[in-house]
Specification:
- The complex is a heterodimer of chains A (about 625) and B (about 210).
- Chain A is α/β, with parallel strands linked by helices.
- In chain B, about 40% of the residues lie in helices and about 20% in strands.
- In chain B, strands 2-3-1-4-5-6 form a 6-stranded mixed beta sheet, with helices on both faces.
- The two termini of chain B are about 25 Å apart.
- In chain B, helix 1 packs across helix 7.
- In chain B, strand 4, helix 2 and strand 5 form a beta-alpha-beta unit.
- Strand 8 of chain A pairs antiparallel with strand 2 of chain B, so a sheet runs across the interface.
Chain lengths: ~625, ~210
Amino acid sequence: MVLKDVLTKEAKTAFMLGNEAIVRGALEADVKMVAFYPGAPTSEVLDTFSAALDEFDYQMEITSNEKVALEVCAGAAFSGVRSLTAMKSVGTNVASDILFVLGYTGVRGGLVIVMADDPHAHSSQSEEDGRFFAPNAYIPMLEPASPQEAKDMTKKAFEISERHRVPVIVRTVTRVNHQSGIVDLLEFNRKDFKKVKWNQLGEKYVTLGEVARQKKLKMLERTKALSEEFETSEFNLVAHADSDIGVITSSVSYLHVLEALKILGLQNKINILKLGTTYPLPKKLISNFIKKLKKVIVVEELSPYLEKEIYVLSKDINPNLTIFGKLSKTFSEAWEYNPDIVATGIALATGSKKPNYQTIILKAKELKNDLPDRYPTFCAGCPHRATFVALNQALKIQVSKGQNHYFANDIGCYSMWIYPPISHSDSSLCMGAGVGVANGLSHVIEERVVAISGDSTFFHAGIPALINAVHNGNKFTLFILDNSVTAMTGQQFNPSTEFIAGGRKGKKVLIENICKAIGVEFVEVVDSYDVKNNIEIFRRALDFDGLSVVISRRECALYGDRVKRRKGEPIVPFYVDKTLCKRPYVCLRTFYCPAYELDNDKQPMISRELCDGCSVCSKLCPLHSVKRVEVKK
Amino acid sequence: MSLNVFICGVGGQGLVLLTRVIGDACANSGKKIVTGEMYGLSQRSGAVSVHMRIGDDVFSPLIPIGQADIMIALEAMESLRYIEYLKKDGIILMNNRIMHPPIETSKIIDSKNKLEYFSLDQVITRLKKWTSNIAIVDALKLARESGNVRTENTVFLGCLSALKIFPVEEKYVKQSITDAVPKKTVDMNLKAFELGRKNAYDSLCTQVACREKT
């Protein structure tokens, strides 16, 4: 798509990413407040809202974490204003404290929470099944399979939310967020944004003790009403066939099922129930579907969420039903599905002939023998690479003096340090946990603990752990890699940037001021590119008998390139002077920059297309053979 | 009728834009399309892939194994990484450019230069065991000729639109290029498109069916 398709007020068909369709659905529903912390696979929801901000009058915040984002939206929804937030599965863990409370208090305006799970952990630390949040918090949940449904369900979710005075979860998976397709756009007319008079609303949002106990009863009634309503929801589809076999599925698995049936020649030969309302479940609909079946195949990614409910329902309605799913080992609880996995499972359950994928895969494997891996790595010009070069040198010196280390990595671009050829990290857990575990480790291990955090991660969840360290007198070293943006998810603004949503001017929060204010005694701010000087400063921080913080600052190279291009400034690359290079390979051994390759003489060579002109490698070459390309004026 | 195209390359080569252009061209010409895009970590230099499916009887955003009619590889080695998706005797449009990842270089240095880089010849020899319909494109050269080195992706759009099995008319593709790329680069992108198209006629259309030249 082009942004104009999201913005157009007319009805038309457009090619859209699932995430863009979510934005379009919210705009058609006249959303007035949105707030996000970025996280793959939802980041394009934030990006699209930010890019469209000048065209509309909704309020938008890029918040410091997901809990704050949900609280921002809850505040607006308490006042009757339609609000939306989107977060990745593990972000919901952070937001879950307020999520559970909202189940009790409810909301006045529509509040929609897009929650994206990441089966296969494509860009997450775990394969979490967020569906269980819904029954646990008594919050209704819709699950789209395609961009069209993502748009339709987002829009409808606002209506459900207001009618039942409860937030609604729209639960996606990576293959829905990052699926593009043709979407029918409807005309929309938006009302002007107006502030609300709180005192005239007569609303109250408290829950505790006896109040909570009474609200719990109300919550159960609400869920019963929703369950009734979902029995006839347009998002639950039944396709009948002349067969005693049925498939029950939801989310993107539904599309894999349709594809698999085509592969197996079973199109229109098996009954299908596709569930779009997955909490509360339409139990009568499911019971009617399974009543006369001999076999039911449950196709859902991750945990047997639907499957266990179907076991419970079948006990009364059809005790002889054979259920194929994860408990029967027809499908796995691990990793994401695709048409091939689903076809294999359905073939097993129906006794059809399995497609022969094994032969193809074995032949392909032969062709891939010795093919080099392509791990994610630091971009050319990435300031993190420079920080790590200096840190590695400093650590080496410390080791030679008898100081050994525990290296606590964290979530961000700097996580790449765990991949080859570097592969250096003792732990890499979840947002801010590097500083958190450093506290415990510093009590019990002999080695010096080195923790890493990015700017965004520090604001997100690192600050409480650092305050804890100061207060308890814990001794370790924290490196905060401040590249001004939340780089890994697409360089979104954060409190370390001077901009806020929509590129508007905001106030930059200085990390060193926070550290000093809470009482950290050793605080140094360095330029990440200044490798030579940084080695000594890093070493002093490691030697410091107490808590030391080093802030290594330089903007993300991709973000910097964009700023340069906008200003019309050139990116001037470097080259290796072959007459000077004696191949000590210092550049390659310490730097691992993707702009470097070996030429036919096995001399290092810099790709003009890839070099970012950061200059760091040129300062490291002992023979001074890396030079800047001369630009003709 | 449906057409499955598997697109792969390295982060930063413009796969997302390429997908966008084809998707918009489909939307504007009344064709159904669904894609599954994989670009999890938004960094440059990682492997990126897109499953693209055009037609009325496709459902999943992912191409089943062995069902891609065409593979577009913006980086040569990446074609092998996903080869199982390509039909036997499917068509490969492949960049002759290899971007050696840092890990490959570091292994060579560690071997004291005894190891060699994985070569374009090796890639081609292996691909030939899968299909003989391979077009090798010097996309970087053509992109430079167009006046903008970042138009490698558009060169491949040109190649693709020459093929008879690609169901979208050239004028729709050109229109969506014009809509999708920055204004200043429209002419260069259209030139890259033409160069790619011509390249396909010169190198591939002797083997596979192509659209009539316009």
